[in-house]
Amino acid sequence: MDLGSINPILLLASIMAASTPILLAAIGELVVERAGVLNLGVEGMMITGAICGFAVAVGTGSPATGFVAGAAGGAVLSLLFALLTQVALANHVASGLALTLFGLGLSALLGQGYVGVKPPPTARLDIPVLGDIPVLGPILFSHDLMVYVALALVAVVWAMLKYSRAGLILRAVGENHDAAHALGYKVVRVRVLAIAFGGACAGLGGAYLSLVRVPQWTEGMTAGAGWIALALVVFASWKAGRVLLGAWLFGGVSVLQLNLQAAGVAIPVEYLSMSPYLITIVVLVIMSADKSRAPASLGRIFHASQ
Amino acid sequence: MTLKSILTGAVMALGLGTTAAVAQDDKTKVGFIYVGPIGDGGWTYEHDQGRLAVEEHFGDRVETVYQESVPEGADATRAITQMALNGADLIFTTSFGFMEPTINVAKKFPNVKFEHATGFKTAPNVSTYSARFYEGRAIQGHIAGKMTESNIVGYIASYPIPEVIRGINSAFIHARKANPDVQFKIIWAYTWFDPAKEADAATALIEQGADVILQHTDSTAPQAAAEKAGNVISFGQASDMAEYKPSPRVSSIIDNWKPYYIARTQAVIDGTWESQQTWDGIGPGMVGIGEITDAVPADVKEEALALKASIAAGEYHPFTGPLKKQDGSDWLAEGETADDGTLLGMNFYVEGLDAEIPQ
Question: How far is A258 from chain B (nearest CA, A)?
Answer without folding.
Answer: 6
